[in-house]
């Protein structure tokens, strides 16, 4: 597994990590300029970091990046992975609170399942930073760091249309008129992000569905029908196999699949290859989207198997979580750049949103290699060092 040190991000990142004023990731603002509070000595601070699973490459990277950044600053870090088991995550967070954590950074498995833990954290005056996945139905969520999740869905849908030729890469109208047969996949319904991804994607796709440019032969156009519990690759593969049997066994051609995560994309592609689709075969693969720039999927994109992914630089997300943690430790409020979008059912949680980037075969080098996220050797092998 690759190391996720922050040095490769440059001096701006180091300055951002040092800030305790809550400035944006890599901002390099001087915390003394606004008369902020004084943070406790680093060696006296324990930060609890709760990640949902180690079955996804992405979450391993996030956990390691947050831990490395905090440890470099001298903090004690309790990093735990819950293996997609809600009771395990609840127990791990309980233990962090009991052990005297000063800040909690939590990427929830189920955004509605941690109310009791957050109440205990609030009673102990422990700030809670919701990491990437919004924790819902609690007034005790102090801050949220994430990417612009609605825009993720917009970009996924747009890349699907580009792959089909309906749009050009610059967003202008393409030459292809359709109709194109597509199928839609969504993430796990207990993950708040899945709804943002879906809503963003449908904001782009719905007009093309309405005018007949896009057709969903299975008829499954609701998020409840498209959802994949726990984002499991195997579940996505089974659903794609079922769709192929039900709607395509008569020779109907499938042109594209909206997939919101690379793990799902690989499951979908496996199902498609299982019925004889793929490069060099009689029938090529449809356009398949993705998310997270996982190394196995980046190789598939390079090999013209998967069409696109959404690159979310988790180094910057980890950095922003650390900036927010330092703000709380100094008695400050982290700086938010969105105070309207993320209503968790009880309150609108102040948030810091990071930008995303579409990656196709045309910009792998620029987006992922030149930025140091993956090496070309890793991409060629499809495996992280």
Automatic annotation (TrEMBL):
Signal peptide: 1-25
Domain Periplasmic binding protein: 47-333
Compartmental location: Cell envelope
Main localization category: other
Pfam families the record matches: Peripla_BP_4
A Gene Ontology molecular function term of the record: carbohydrate binding
InterPro entries reported in the protein's UniProt record: Bact_Solute-Bind_Prot2, ChvE-like, Peripla_BP_I, SBP_2_dom
Keywords from the UniProt entry: Signal
PANTHER family: D-XYLOSE-BINDING PERIPLASMIC PROTEIN
NCBIfam families: ChvE
Name of protein: Putative sugar ABC transporter
Organism expressing this protein natively: Beutenbergia cavernae (strain ATCC BAA-8 / DSM 12333 / CCUG 43141 / JCM 11478 / NBRC 16432 / NCIMB 13614 / HKI 0122)
Phylogenetic placement of the source organism: Bacteria, Bacillati, Actinomycetota, Actinomycetes, Micrococcales
């Amino acid at each position: 597994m690759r190391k996720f040190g922050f040095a490769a991000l440059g001096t701006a990142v180091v300055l951002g990590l040092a800030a305790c004023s809550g400035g944006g990731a890599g901002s390099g603002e001087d915390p003394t300029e606004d008369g902020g509070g004084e943070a406790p000595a680093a060696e006296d601070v324990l930060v609890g970091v709760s990640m949902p699973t180690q079955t996804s490459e992405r979450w391993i990277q996030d956990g390691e990046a947050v831990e490395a950044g905090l440890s470099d600053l001298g903090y004690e870090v309790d990093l735990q992975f819950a293996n997609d088991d809600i009771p395990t995550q609840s127990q791990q967070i309980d233990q962090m609170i009991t052990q005297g954590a000063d800040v909690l950074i939590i990427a929830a498995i189920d955004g509605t399942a941690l109310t009791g833990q957050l109440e205990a954290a609030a009673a102990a005056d422990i700030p809670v930073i919701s990491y990437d996945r919004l924790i819902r139905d609690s007034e005790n969520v102090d801050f949220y760091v994430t990417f612009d999740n609605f825009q993720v869905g917009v970009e996924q849908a747009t890349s699907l249309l580009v792959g089909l030729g309906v749009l050009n890469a610059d967003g202008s109208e393409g030459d292809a008129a359709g109709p194109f047969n597509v199928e839609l996949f969504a993430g796990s319904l207990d993950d708040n992000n899945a709804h943002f991804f879906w809503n963003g994607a449908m904001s782009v796709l719905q007009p093309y569905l309405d005018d007949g440019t896009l057709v969903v032969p299975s008829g499954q156009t609701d998020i409840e029908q498209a959802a994949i519990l726990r984002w499991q690759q195997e579940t996505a593969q089974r659903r794609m196999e079922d769709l192929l049997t039900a709607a395509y066994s008569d020779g109907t051609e499938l042109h594209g699949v909206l997939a919101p995560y690379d793990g799902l994309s690989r499951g979908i592609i496996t199902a498609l290859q299982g019925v004889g689709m793929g490069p060099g075969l009689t029938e090529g693969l449809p356009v398949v989207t993705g998310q997270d720039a996982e190394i196995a999927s980046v190789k598939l994109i390079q090999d013209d198997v998967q069409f696109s992914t959404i690159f979310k630089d988790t180094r910057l997300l980890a950095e922003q979580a650390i900036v927010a943690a330092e703000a709380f430790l100094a008695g400050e409020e982290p700086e938010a750049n969105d105070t309207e979008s993320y209503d968790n059912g009880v309150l609108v949680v102040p948030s810091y949103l990071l930008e995303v980037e579409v990656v196709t075969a045309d910009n792998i080098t620029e987006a992922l290699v030149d930025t140091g996220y993956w090496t070309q050797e890793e991409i060629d092998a499809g495996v992280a060092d």
